[in-house]
UniProtKB/TrEMBL annotation:
Pfam families listed in its UniProt record: BPD_transp_2
Lineage summary: Bacteria, Pseudomonadati, Pseudomonadota, Betaproteobacteria, Burkholderiales
Keyword Membrane among UniProt keywords: yes
Annotated keywords: Cell membrane, Membrane, Transmembrane, Transmembrane helix
Name of this chain's protein: Ribose transport system permease protein
Membrane topology listed for this record: Multi-pass membrane protein
InterPro entries found in the cross-reference section: ABC_transp_permease (IPR001851)
CDD domains found in the cross-reference section: TM_PBP1_transp_AraH_like
Bilayer-spanning residue ranges: 36-58, 70-89, 95-113, 120-142, 181-203, 232-252, 264-284, 291-310
Annotated localization: Cell membrane
């Protein structure tokens, strides 16, 4: 009986599948760490730059102020990260923020509901708006850009109707969310950090997160694998609406009022933070932690420009240039990965 002879495919230099997975994981981990370090260095460089330009920037008060101003932007950016990963976009988050805050304020001031019930109603409003956006886009296979643009206008109109085009003052009814905790840091900031952590774990450590990345990478392949992407898309948009509703509560708590004009243009800041954090506009790649770095970069940039006396037009030009630079870097990264 002859002994079996090795075929070319069984050559010693062929990498066993079991060995290739850890190697790929190690490469991915190094890439993530490199991105974290790169974003941290950019953030530190900006802090050093503005500290050299202003004697008042490198103070505890400045950083506490930044921390207490970013929770609304941070929680919306978490939702937008998932939306961009599935190759979608949601332009309605600013309007959803305004409507959710308006519903909460109206429930407290006009309808005399208990504060917990009013807050739940505001959150439910955001959840419903996001679910409608996702369901319409999925049911009729419409571009999410167009659907969310229509929702932006419709929901903003709803905010004006609920408030009768007037600012609704809620006083300290929900001020506890913006109340300072240790070192002057607000409860909203602590909650935002918790949501960032949960979002990152959901994206990287759950089956749902793998499905989200898979849909953004190759939706047809997910279908062939037996995964229906439609409910996942709706869930992502609904969750983004819910987080926008929470952002509305955070902003209303900080201002002690709900303004129907609040959140105008904030969707561009949200998208900018996510893109600066390295999430691909083409879908399939992103990180919630990196998005939080993007939020911090935008916040530090705005605070620094304000302290050095930059005019509003100058701040817009510089912020726009940073966004374009982030998109260019993302495009170059994609091309390099495609040719590797």
């Amino acid at each position: 009986m002859t002994s079996p002879v090795s075929t070319p495919s069984q050559a010693p230099d062929a990498t066993p599948p079991a060995a290739s997975a850890p190697a790929a994981a190690s490469i991915n981990l190094r890439s993530q760490l490199g991105t974290y370090i790169g974003l941290a260095l950019v953030l530190c460089g900006m802090v050093a730059l503005f500290s050299s330009l202003s004697d008042y920037f490198l103070t505890v008060e400045t950083f506490v102020t930044i921390a207490n101003e970013i929770p609304a932007l941070a929680v919306m950016a978490v939702g937008m990260t998932f939306v961009l990963i599935i190759a979608g976009i949601d332009l309605s988050v600013g309007s959803v923020l305004a409507l959710s805050a308006a519903v909460t304020a109206a429930a407290i001031v006009q309808w005399k509901l208990a504060v917990p019930l009013a807050a739940a109603l505001g959150l439910a409003t955001g959840l419903l708006c996001g679910a409608i956006t996702g369901a319409v886009a999925v049911a009729w296979r419409l571009p999410t850009f167009i659907v969310s643009l229509g929702m932006l206008e419709a929901v903003r109109g709803g905010a004006y109707l609920v408030t009768e085009s007037r600012t609704q003052y809620v006083g300290d009814a929900i001020a506890g969310l913006a109340a300072p905790w240790v070192g002057g840091i607000s409860a909203a900031f602590v909650l935002a950090l918790a949501i960032v952590a949960v979002g990152q774990l959901l994206l990287t450590r759950t089956v749902f997160g793998r499905y989200v990345v898979g849909i953004g990478t190759n939706e047809e392949a997910m279908r062939l694998a037996g995964v229906d992407p439609r409910p996942i898309r709706v869930i992502v948009f609904a969750a983004t609406g819910l987080l926008a509703g929470l952002a509305g509560l955070m902003q209303a708590a900080r201002l002690e009022a709900a303004d129907p004009n609040s959140g105008v243009g904030i969707e561009l800041q949200v998208i900018a933070a996510v893109v600066i954090g390295g999430t691909s506009l083409m879908g399939g790649r992103g990180s919630v932690v990196n998005t939080f770095f993007g939020v911090l970069i935008i916040a530090v940039l705005e605070a620094g420009l304000a302290q050095v006396g930059a005019s509003e037009p100058s701040k817009r030009i510089i912020t726009g240039a940073v966004i374009v630079a982030a998109v260019i870097i993302d495009t170059l990264r994609q091309r390099r990965a495609g040719t590797a």
